[in-house]
Amino acid sequence: QLQLVESGGGLVQPGGSLRLSCVGSGVTLDYYAIAWFRQAPGKGREWVSCVYSSNGHTVYAESVKGRFTISRDNAKKTVYLQMNSLKSEDTAVYYCAASIIDGTYSPTDYDYWGQGTQVTDSS
Question: What is the DSSP string of 17-33?
Fold first, then answer.
């Protein structure tokens, strides 16, 4: 059974940066695509980015393209989300999730979820 734990959230001013981490335990991350989702108050869960298991290919939502970077270190069982040039609309709880399907955007295709980490605009 794969467990995921996120960390790295916090208060940040617009234009600032944060790096989120998602650490896996229980089984190897190697065979899973890992995605980041976010959920703002009163809104549905939004897919943000994913990194493939097969070749490390990365994909981003248009709203974060050019500002966020996803990366994975399988040896450390960790996936990162570097968030730069943060905007107030990035305020949300951020979740990492694992799927055996590369490139899927649907939350229902992700079998394992972390508990989430809060990112908040401090302005």
Answer: -EEEEEEEESS-STT-E
